[in-house]
Request: fold
Amino acid sequence: MKKLLAVLKREYLQTVRKKMFIVMTFLMPVLMGAVLVLPSLIMARGMGEKKIAVVDGTGKLREAFTKAPVATEGKPEPSTRPGRRRLPENMRVEYVDAAGKDADEAAKPFLTRMSGAKETRIDGVFVVPADAITNTDATLRYYSRAAADFMSQERLSSIANGAVQRDRLAARGLSSDDVDKVLRTLSVDAVQLSKSGEEKKGGIANFFVGFMMTGLLIVPSFMYGLEIMRGIIQEKTDRVVEVLVSSMSTQQLLIGKILGVALVGLTQIGVWFIMFGAVGAFGLATAAMAGENVLQLLRPSTFVYFFIFFVLAYLTYVCIYAIGGAVSNSEKEAQQLIAPITMIMMLPWFLLVAIITNPDSTLSVAFSLSPVFGPMTMYVRILVAEPPMWHIVLTILISIATIAVFFWATAKIFRVGILSYGKRPTIPELWRWIKVA
Amino acid sequence: MSHILAVRNVVKTFGSVRAVDGVSFNVREGTITGLLGRNGAGKTTTIRMITGIFMPDSGSIEWLGASTAAEFRDRIGYLPEERGLYRQMKIVELLLFLAEIKGKRPADVRPAIDRWLERFELTDKRNAKIEELSKGNQQKVQLIGTLLHDPDLIILDEPQSGLDPVNMVLVRNLLRDLKNEGKTILLSTHMMGEAERMADDIVLIHRGSVVLEGNINEVRGSFGKNTLHVEYDGDGAFLSELPNVKRASIVNNAAELSLLDGSDPQKILEAAMGRLRIRKFELAMPSLEEIFIEKVGTETLTEVVR
Reply:
């Protein structure tokens, strides 16, 4: 036990002092944050400011297109989602009243400006024909410099259509108050109904939180699995291993190493949670303002399960990496061996969208109850749904059994592998190692 | 004197290769035992079975004064042939770790670390990382790591390979001191001269089997005084052609001649005196090298020479 602790202590201290640990500890949250925030930032802001000329043949859409831009985010007006019929913040519209003129003709100078001098250049021209209100078959036209600027097109089209519908209704004698009421859209509240009948608000934020927590769950396993593999190869190439195994059993050595690096992973996650706690308080407040109830995902049980499934996933993956290290002679050789295996182990991650959106599907259940994939998949299911308790218990039991078998096999392969230099063993040879050692 | 270690008929097979094929020998307490043999003879495999790295396929390792294999392990200090240290660690950190995995408490070995670093002139480098040290200094650190936990049985596998002459003398003196302190040493080497200087007992292994075992003087004595050391002026090449000379090794103006049993050295002297000016003529016990070649055959000698 003393020896195991000595190995554990050495492994922990040496890893924590490495640059990689420090860099990952601080970089990872930033990367995670970027993954979460960037898409919405890009959606909100597009790719910078857009200058659009709106050539209005009807001459009646000035109000719709020159209203002050409204932020896409922020407090929703009662019973309407903001934004769809307003200009986005980053769009600058040059409104051209072409009433009584040929709209296409009026648009021409603007079309030349699309490729003109930089100061006066515009990004798009939106043409509303003169008969847009009276002719139900009229076509709006959007000239754009970008081939697939569908986001601006969507927005301009919905603003124009909104205004045209108003005018059509007004022409049929509705008061502007009534027009407002007719055109008001209804919003959807996503509600998740749990087994206990408790109602919870769902939403897009749940999806992102699911992604993030799952990432946190598995990234350290792969990162430190790789670290263990490297360490074992290092010990082989530095020839330290002979002194180690002449002083203790290979089981002591292996368990000491794995637990030492597991502690490193837990330390890192601890730091991350503290950092997220600080940043998250702010994030949660914002999310709550947007009507997203993220807190219901981050219940205390979420963290208890996180701990359980982190440890299970970690121990499973790390054994595989330890074997990879024990049977390889160089890092390069080990990488080649382990890369395809990693791909297979990551399968639930590639299927994460399917699992998050359908946590009770046959696919999700099958993955969550299978060895190796179980801990990660089950954690996702717990996060976004309420799997039956016996599923959870079964996953934990299967994982523990898997880890026991892996540990047993790893220790045996490790024993033979760490002292054999030269050719990498074939699968039958590996099997013999397991039987012999 | 009692045995601290008895190796009983151990066998180890790797695939189709019998690396060790029924090796038996004893190591007496307080002595230096030389484990001799060519590279690949099975020395390292035998040692790895003694240190518990390999389990023998059959046979057993017995030891004195420890009730379990694990306890015995802690009383061994083992310097493997393949040297290696954690390159990223500092000297003191590493030495503390090595003592800990031998079951020592860090606080208990700190004074010993200071003493050893002083003795090997490494005190000023105590906080240097291993990778910053010269190769010779790395070897010294590894040697300290082997001895730090005050082992009763010290197993050294080719301790002098790769050492410069100064460090070689340092190791030689160290082994003498350890022996005087009552430690038992098992010294594996292929350098016969070293073994002759240091060892009390020898175990000669060839192709996985013991071909010769016993007290070094008795072993040499049993081969009789049938070796002539001759030093001379002139061309002594003809000496190897003389009748009754079984084997000759001639270097510069000195010859070591092994004679056939029952031959008269006087005849050789007469023949030599006719053609050379003799400076030294000595009838002696054969050197370990002679015995080694005698035992493992000349077919091996030609391999060695090549």
Notes: Chain A has a mean pLDDT of 77. Residues 213 and 303 of chain A are 10 Å apart (CA to CA).
